[in-house]
Design goal:
- Helices cover about 35% and strands about 20% of the residues.
- With about 220 residues, the protein is an alpha/beta fold.
- It has a single domain, classed as Vaccinia Virus protein VP39 (Rossmann fold), CATH 3.40.50.
- A 7-stranded mixed beta sheet has the order 3-2-1-4-5-7-6, sandwiched between helices.
- Helix 5 links the parallel strand 4 and strand 5.
- It is globular, with a radius of gyration of 16 Å.
- The structure holds S-adenosylmethionine.
- The site of S-adenosylmethionine has 21 residues, from loops.
Length: about 220
């Protein structure tokens, strides 16, 4: 009999219970910080890549008045989102949008899951207008990602490597902040529910959590 792949942590009820509708460390804290830093205003069009349950799309619409949309490839996540506004089924590394469509792209706790991060960053670059903003928050870790790892923690890369790749793909890095405290808070809540050890929440590999804001440069 072939064993079925384990349900990833972000599709498990335990993460929903520990984190709420934002399936990442920090809830809206870093979303709001980033939206304020980039000066998001009504009239902007913003994309959330790997939108999960659609919480960031709703937040950006209600708090900042922007036209926000999200792409999410998982049918299960979209079903759990219960028809949340602005969500489209698509992968973040094959975006169904023309070039220069967005003022900002958010990608929260998702880039580490891409098999081809450079290709994903190229897609973000393509759909952003010149000078548009890329908001990344994600796990980082010391050392190389674990071979064949499936969890965010296994796949996390060193922050310097991520910043280097972002620059290489045609962005200038405007802000990098350490928010590992938010990862520890979420890990503690998951440990309490018994999930952390089984599914990987970033406790190993000296994992941390970062916010990075980058800007599309004219040329790559
Ligand atoms: C940890 S959850 C974060 C969800 C959401 N960004 C949030 O913070 O609430 C990771 C999400 O990335 C999605 N995902 C995985 N691979 C993806 C890809 N190639 N493109 C876009 N989203 C992807 C998963 O389905 C999942 O919903």
């Amino acid at each position: 009999m072939v064993a079925s792949a384990p349900v990833p942590l972000w599709e498990r009820e335990a993460l929903h219970e520990a984190a709420g509708p934002t399936l990442r460390p920090g809830g809206f804290e870093l979303t709001d910080r980033a939206a304020e830093f980039i000066g998001a205003v009504p009239g902007w069009t913003v994309l959330d890549v790997g939108a999960g349950l659609g919480a960031t799309v709703s937040r950006l619409r209600s708090r900042f008045g922007v036209r926000a949309f999200g792409v999410e490839p998982s049918a299960g996540q979209l079903a759990r989102a219960h028809g949340a506004a602005g969500l489209i089924r698509a992968r973040g590394d094959e975006l169904p949008f023309g070039q220069g469509r967005f003022d900002a792209v958010f990608c929260e706790c998702v880039l580490s899951l891409f098999d081809d991060r450079a290709g994903g960053l190229d897609e973000f670059h393509r759909v952003l207008r010149p000078g548009g903003f890329l908001v990344l928050s994600d796990l980082c870790a010391s050392g190389s990602p674990a071979e064949g790892g499936a969890s965010c923690a296994d796949r996390a890369a060193p922050l310097a490597d991520i910043a280097g790749l972002v620059r290489e793909r045609g962005f200038s890095v405007e802000l990098t902040e350490d928010h590992s405290r938010l990862l520890r808070d979420l890990a503690a809540r998951l440990a309490w529910s018994g999930e952390a050890g089984r599914h990987g929440c970033g406790c190993g590999r000296n994992a941390g959590y970062f916010l990075m804001i980058a800007r599309k440069q004219g040329v790559k």
